[in-house]
Specification:
The complex is a heterodimer of chains A (about 325) and B (about 325). Chain A has eleven helices and seven strands. Chain A is an alpha/beta fold and about 325 residues long. The mean pLDDT of chain A is about 95. The relative contact order of chain B is 0.12. In chain B, about 35% of the residues lie in helices and about 20% in strands. The chains are: A alpha/beta (about 325), B alpha/beta (about 325). Chains A and B meet through α5 and α6 of A and α3 and α4 of B.
Chain lengths: ~325, ~325
């Protein structure tokens, strides 16, 4: 951690707080009935997206998941456009056509959240194929969960990336539940990183609630990918505080389990370390939280004041070029 | 004019396009060293090298998903699904990812991607290697569906498909690969969404696709000896569908027979019939007839398979029926 530049450490802290504040407010807005559809929140898992995306630039790609807000924010997504999309407004990232599960910003290298568990790995592999084909030293990062680690698409994507030594980093967010099914009930291994051996790629397990551990593991994997040595798998063990979706009664896990994980909250942990290093004090912490609250407020205001899409827009954006009339 | 086979015409389209645009690559099962299971990619590896002609593992989801990611990241993939039947193991990457990405992202993704595949019965390849499934793809907004019946159309439509900026399912028919026809040298395109009147006529309109087109033409030739004038239309693309050409023909002939190798139930023939019923009902002098495969998996035995595939006799009977004659077959 001592080798990570001071500005990077502070920026990582700010991003984690930004995600936490954004997601907490989204939870409230959903409870107030302001957001249509399904919402899957990233609260508790902030260290993973933040620690990985701290290494990325706009030329690098990510594929995300149904629990994607954190990835987008960490990759540089615009809070106003994100919030407007969650509201279903015309000014949102996807003009109100995608919603929470499909937010994307292709110009920022975000190839979309994804409503299909395991939908992303082949796409990330394809982005990695294109980067190698184009002779670029960029990478594609594929975020996926423990649930998706069992999908055939995940294995197919990893296999393809491995045989062709594509610049893809597979980041598994193991939050120990595929919706309601606990890890010990959905797979017979405890370390998903073990599966990397099947593809002859490095596989490491990190504490996904320790942002510096995530940052360091990602540094290694991304360096390897940029150098043309092929893909890696990083398993980040973490936990979601909220249910699978907002409104999930979480009958499948105990209060004690949740409380034990909340004691390992990635944000206060990192905060304590930064304080010890003299990089943060209480006043600065409060100022950062206040700034993020203000930015999310601004995003909410933007979303609420934005117009709905016009019904005439329903049939736009299906095809590139002339519309197909049936 | 020079003649080429259907497979040779497709091969030439791939070569010309790859020569023109370095962002085009070909990938799929056995497309490189082997040259494609039906020979369509023969010689491409030698000419363009392994970077652009990529043999993939037998993992169809990854093939289609990889193409989707590569297209979103700026390449123009032409990937091969060896048999259309294999879409069953890879449907999500096409239907939920590639087809919908542009729309879900509010228009901010461009996916110039061609999924070449082949379909059809006639080789005793049985139920998992012989289906015609074009209507599955017609049902998904975001995809275009192209299905050539001649070497000329195969080359022009493939070039157009590669240059199009949308995900395209390009369906070839395995029994047409060896058929020969006149094919100009050099590049040419055929607009997607433009039907071709394969034979002009005045008494009955027959709309046919893929391997049913040569059969419909043979029937038309036979009936011409009796003074019956059959117009044969090949839509060539199902999405977009050139409704106008079909409606204009029906308004002229007042009779319609639709011939596909697909099963009729919820098939492309049903869609075409519905469109004509909705938009040209008053012009029809007889009920619309469809000649399709029965609602059955494709059988193995030649004795059964030959009965499964719509025959010229059945087409002829349907044409006679809309003209008011009693059926025989």
């Amino acid at each position: 951690m001592s080798e990570i530049p001071k500005e990077t450490l502070l920026s990582i802290y700010e991003t984690m707080v930004k995600i936490r504040v954004f997601e907490s407010r989204v939870s409230e807005l959903f409870a107030q009935g302001k957001l249509p559809g399904f919402i899957h929140l990233y609260i508790g898992e902030e260290a993973v997206a933040t620690g990985v995306c701290a290494h990325l630039n706009p030329g690098d790609y990510i594929t995300s998941t149904h629990r994607g807000h954190g990835h987008l924010i960490a990759k540089g997504g615009d809070l106003k456009l994100m919030m407007a999309e969650l509201y279903g407004k015309r000014t949102g990232y996807c003009k109100g056509k995608g919603g929470s599960m499909h937010i994307a910003d292709v110009d920022l290298g975000i190839l979309g959240a994804n409503g299909i568990v395991g939908g992303g790995p082949p796409i990330a592999t394809g982005a990695g194929f294109a980067l190698k084909y184009q002779g670029k030293d960029n990478v594609a990062v594929c975020f996926f969960g423990d649930g998706a680690s069992n999908q055939g698409t995940t294995h197919e994507g990893m296999n393809m990336a491995a045989i062709w030594k594509l610049p893809v980093v597979f980041v598994c967010e193991n939050n120990f539940y595929g919706i309601s099914l606990s890890q010990e009930r959905h797979q017979s291994i405890s370390d998903i990183a073990d599966r990397a051996a099947a593809y002859d790629m490095p596989g490491v397990v990190v504490d996904g609630n320790d942002v510096t551990a995530v940052y360091e593991a990602a540094a290694e994997a991304i360096k390897r990918a940029r150098a043309g040595h092929g893909p890696s798998l990083i398993e980040c063990k973490t936990y979601r505080y909220r249910g699978h979706f907002e409104g999930d009664p979480t009958v499948y896990r105990s209060k004690e389990e949740l409380e034990a994980w909340m004691k390992k909250d990635p944000i206060p942990r990192f905060e304590t370390n930064l304080k010890k290093m003299g990089l943060l004090d209480d006043a600065r912490i409060m100022a950062i939280h206040k700034e993020m609250e203000d930015r999310v407020d601004e995003a909410i205001r933007f979303a609420e004041e934005s117009p709905w899409p016009d019904p005439s827009e329903l049939l736009e954006d299906i095809y590139t070029g002339p519309a197909v009339v049936v | 004019m020079r003649k080429l086979t259907y497979a040779g015409a497709l091969n030439e389209a791939l070569r010309l396009e790859m020569q023109r645009d370095p962002t085009i690559f070909v990938a799929g099962e056995d497309v490189g060293t082997y040259g494609g299971i039906f020979g369509v990619t023969n010689g491409l590896l030698a000419e363009f090298g392994p970077k652009r002609v990529v043999d993939t593992p037998i993992t169809e989801s990854a093939i289609i998903g990889m193409a989707t990611g590569a297209a979103a990241a700026g390449l123009r993939p032409v990937v091969e699904l060896m048999f259309i039947d294999f879409i069953g193991v890879s449907l999500d990457q096409l239907f939920n990812q590639a087809a919908k990405m542009k729309y879900m992202f509010g228009g901010k993704a461009t996916l110039p991607l061609v999924l070449r595949t082949e379909c059809g019965a006639g080789m005793s390849a049985a139920a998992q290697h012989s289906q015609c499934l074009e209507s599955w793809f017609m049902h998904v907004p975001g995809l275009k569906v192209v299905l050539p019946s001649t070497p000329y159309d195969a080359k022009g439509l493939l070039i157009s498909s590669i240059r199009d900026n949308n995900p395209i399912v390009f369906i070839e028919h395995k029994m047409l690969y060896g058929t020969e026809g006149e094919v100009p040298e050099g590049e040419y395109t055929i607009p997607l969404g433009k039907a071709d009147i394969k034979r002009a006529g005045t008494d009955v309109t027959v709309v046919a696709t893929l391997a049913m087109v040569p059969k419909a033409l043979a029937v038309a030739e036979e009936l011409s000896k009796e003074g019956i004038s059959v117009e044969v239309i090949d839509p060539r693309t199902l999405t977009p569908l050139d409704e106008e050409t079909i409606l204009e023909s029906v308004k002229k002939t007042h009779r319609l027979v639709i011939v596909t190798e697909e099963v009729g139930h919820a098939g492309s023939s049903a869609e075409i019939a519905a469109r004509v019923a909705e938009k040209a009902f008053d012009y029809l002098d007889a009920g619309i007839r469809r000649v399709t495969a029965p609602f059955s998996p494709v059988p193995f035995s030649p004795a059964l398979e030959s009965h499964f595939i719509p025959s010229e006799a059945k087409i002829m009977d349907a044409v006679r029926a809309v003209l008011g004659a009693p059926e025989t077959a």
